[in-house]
Amino acid sequence: MKYLNRSTVLIALSTLVIGLVLGRLIFGGKSTNGHHHEPVAEGKQQVWTCSMHPSVRQSEPGKCPICGMDLIPVDTDHSDEDSLEIKMSAAAVKLANIRTSVVGAEKPVKEIRLNGKVQTDEKNVFSQTSHISGRIEELMVSITGANVKKGQVIAYVYAPELVTAQEELFEAYKIRESQPALYQAAREKLTNWKLTPQQIDGIIEQGKPREQFPISSDISGVVTKKSINLGDYVKRGSALYEIADLSRLWVLFDVYEREIPWVKVGDEIEYTVQSIPGASFKGSIDFIDPVINSKTRVAKARISVRNNHSKLKPEMFVSGRIKSVLEKDESSLAIPKSSVMWTGKRSVVYVKTRSDAGVAFVMREVILGPSLGDSYLIEHGLEPGEEIVTNGTFSIDAAAQLAGKPSMMSPISSGRPKGGTKATGHRHGSDLHEGENQYEPLEQLPSIHVTSDMKEALSPLIESYLQLKDALVNDDFETSITKAQKFKEVLDGISMSSFEGDAHQIWMKQGMPLSNLIEQLIEARDIALVRKPFKPLSDYMINLAEVFRPAEQPLYIQHCPMADDFKGADWLSTEDNIMNPYYGASMLTCGEVKDTIQ
After folding, report:
1. Distance of alpha carbon 515 from alpha carbon 535, whole angstroms
2. In whole angstroms, what is the distance from residue 426 CA to residue 421 CA?
3. Are residues 291 and 151 both part of a single domain?
4. Which of 62, 114, 310, 379 is packed most tightly, with the most Cβ within 10 A?
5. Alpha helical stretches, state H, 130-218
6. Which residues are within 8 A (CB) of 185 and not within 5 positions of it... i.e. 6 or more apart?
7. Same structural domain for residues 116 and 257?
8. Distance of alpha carbon 113 from its chain centroid, rounded?
9. Torsional sign, CA 583, 584, 585, 591
10. Is 556 found in the same domain as 527?
C-alpha cells in the first residue's frame, strides 16, 4: 500500500468539490423538456405562454397553437396580482434602454412648414382696351412677357369712323372764326377717341385724313396675356392685352385645414425660393382666405412683397416656415411623441413610479391636443412633475402583455395569470407599431430561402393592398373601406405553416402588425383617417415585398416627401408613373420612384 502525500490529497479533494459545483450549475436546474425554470410552489399550477402571442395560456409545455413556437413558463408568483404596475429591475431597465423625462408646462409654440407660389398682385393687373373701333393693321407688341411703358404705342387700328370725323374737322376748321363752337366740337369728338391735342393739330397740318391710328399703353408693366391678332376687328372697349405691374407681388402659401388654428394675420413667415438658392426672405401675413377650397382642403395665406430688381417671378415655388403660438390662457403640458402609443382609438403612456420595492411603470390613457412637431399637447391625463417613459415604451408594453396586465392592445385585464416570464427573447408582433409610423424596418434584407408556398400566400395580399392604394388615389372613401375589409380577409386566411425558420420570424415581425393597422383603417370615419394608418401599413408591405418578392410583375417603391407632415411616406405601385394615395386629386403627381422590386 502506498501512502499519498498531503498535497496530492488536497488537490484531489478540491477537484471533486469544483466538479460537484459546476455540475449543479450546469445540469441541476435543467428539466427534461429543455426549459430552465424555477420549481413551482406547492399548490400553485405552472402556466405556459408564447412570447409572440401572450394570449395563449396552457397548463403544460408544448407548441404555440398559433405560430408553433415553444411555449415558455410564466412566473406564478401572485404577490402583486392586484397591482397594475410593471416592476422592472435596474438591470432590466438598462437592458431595454428605457429613458424617461419629467412632464412640464411649456408655451405651445409650433413650427409649421408651408409650401406656396409667387403670384401677381391682383391690384396691379390691368386690361388694356381699344379706344376706337376698327381693324388691327399693325401690332407693335406681339408676344406675352414683353415689357411696355406708359404712353408706348402698342398697335395701329384702321378706323372708318375716325376718317369721317377727320373730314368733319377739316370743314369746321375752315369756318372756325365764324363758327368757333362747331370747330371746338369737332376737336372734342376726336379727343373722345383718346387723340391728344398734338395729334389733332398734326392732322390739321397734314391736310388729309389719317387712316391708321395708334393705340398707346395706359400703364407700365409686363404683358401677361394677348387677346388679339393682326387683322382682328375690335370694338371700342375691347380688351387687347392684360398688363401686370410686377414691382409688387403676392406670395400665396397653402395652409391645410388642420393647421389653420395656428396661422394668423400678422404672423411672420421666413421663406426660401427654389430658383434663388442661398437667399432667405421674410414677410408678414396680411390676409387669409375665409373659405377653404373644397377639393384641396387648403386656405391661402398671403404676404405682399416688393420685387426689387425683378428677382421674383410669378409661379415660382416657395417653401416657408412659421412659428406660431397657440392662443391659450396658460402654459400647457407637452410630451414627446416617442412617449405616446397610439392604438387608433386610445393614446396611452407609461408613468414611472418609485417605491421601496424599486422601479415600476403604470399605463395611463391620455387625451392628446395639437401636435407640436416632435411633441403633443396634453389635454387630460397627466400632471406637471410626473415622470413618463420616452424611450422603450414597447418593451414595457410587451412585458405588460406577457404578465396579463393592461396594455396597449388589452386595456382591461382579462384575468389571466399575473407575473413576468422567465425568458422571452422575442417581441410581440403587435407592439411594433402605434399609428405614428413606428415600425421595425429591415435595414439589411435577410438572406432566406423563399418557397413557392410563401409567394402564393403573399401574392393575394399584395394584390389587395394595391386595390386599397388605388381607392385612395381616387379619393374614394367607401371603396377604400371595402378594399380594406378584403385585405383583412386575405390576411386572416394566411396560414402560419407557410413560413418556416427565419421566414417565420420575418413574417411575425413584419406581417403580424398588419392586423391592427387594417382594423384602424376599417374603423376610420373619413378618408383622411384612412390614409393615416396606410403609411405604416405600406412600410410593412414594402418590407415583405422586398424579402419574399411575391408579385409576378415589378413593384415600384414610390415616395412623397410632403406626406405625414413633411416626414415623407412610401407606397407600392405596379406602374412607374406617380399616382399619390396620400393626397389623391389635390396633389396626384407629387412624388418620385425610389426603387424597383424586380
Report:
1. 14
2. 12
3. no
4. 114
5. 160-174, 180-191, 197-206
6. 172
7. yes
8. 11
9. positive
10. yes
CA pseudo-torsion sign 129, 135, 140, 145: positive
Do 135 and 214 have their domain in common?
yes
For residue 114, which of 287, 282, 306, 255 has the smallest C-alpha distance? 255
Torsion of CA 517, 522, 527, 532, to 10 degrees: -10
Query: Which of 244, 276, 298 represents a domain boundary (last residue)?
Result: 244
For residues 589 and 465, membership in a common domain is answered with yes
HSE of 195, CA atoms in CB hemisphere, 13 A: 25
Q: For the chain of 598 residues, list the mean pLDDT of each consecutive stretch of 10.
A: 43 42 38 42 64 69 73 57 70 81 78 88 88 86 89 86 79 81 83 78 79 84 90 87 91 87 88 89 92 86 89 90 70 80 74 78 84 78 87 80 69 37 31 38 56 83 91 90 89 78 74 82 86 89 84 86 81 88 86 82
Entry field: residues in the chain: 598
Instruction: Find, among 533, 447, 544, 446, the residue nearest to 494 by Cα.
Output: 544
Burial class, 99, CB count within 10 angstroms (exposed 0-12 / middle 13-18 / buried 19+): middle
By three-state DSSP, how is residue 309 classified?
Answer: helix
CA distance 501 to 563: 36
Answer whether 246's CB lies under 8 Å from 148's CB.
Answer: no
Does 545 reside within a domain?
yes
Measure Cα distances from 162 to 11, 136, 207 in Å: 134, 14, 15
The phi-psi region of residue 168 (left if phi > 0; otherwise alpha if psi is between -120 and 50; otherwise beta) is alpha
Closest CA to 144 of 275, 247, 244, 250: 244
Please name the residues in contact with 111: beta carbons below 8 A apart, sequence gap of 6 or more.
Answer: 321, 322, 323, 373
Based on the fold, state whether residues 302 and 384 are members of the same structural domain: no
Number of domains, the chain: 4
Rounded CA-CA distance 388/348 in Å is 11
239 and 253 assigned to the same domain: no
Tell me the Cα Rg of the chain.
39
Model-wide pTM > 0.85 = no
Would you tell me how many other CB atoms lie within 10 Å of the CB of residue 482?
A: 15
**69 is a domain residue:** no
CB 407 within 8 A of CB 372: no
Q: Are 166 and 203 in contact (CB under 8 A)?
A: yes
Range of the domain at 296: 111-121+246-325
Residue 246 has, within 13 A of its CA and on its CB side, a CA count of 21
Examine the domain organization and report whether 188 and 134 are in the same domain.
yes
- Cell numbers placing 115: 409650401
**Separation between Cα atoms, residue 59 and residue 571, nearest integer Å:** 44
> Between β-strands 147-148 and 375-380, what pairing exists: parallel, antiparallel or unpaired?
unpaired
With a CB cutoff of 8 Å and minimum separation 6, the contacts of 186 are 165, 168, 169, 171, 172, 173
In a domain, 194, yes or no: yes
Q: Which cell numbers in the block locate residue 480?
A: 377604400
Grid cell digits, residue 356 = 421601496
